[in-house]
Specification:
alpha+beta, 22% strand, three-stranded antiparallel β-sheet, globular
Amino acid sequence: MAMEEEKIQDIWCWTEKAEATSFNPCIRAGEPVWEDYQVQMPKHVVDAGLVERVRFCGNQIIWNLDELIRPSESQLKGGIQR
């Protein structure tokens, strides 16, 4: 039986800040940004903390480097769970 392989990829996902400050109900923290922006993300959106780069394998997050570098407020209050 052949082992199925899942492609590992880095994608942009919305942050809690993006969800809290957006009037668009389609923007939800932790969900991938729109397909058009997966290829080229405007620098001002990254600098504003509205998106973060997340590594996925299939539908599962492998790790999120931005969490280690810039924890969200909820992670700072409750401690980062690993």
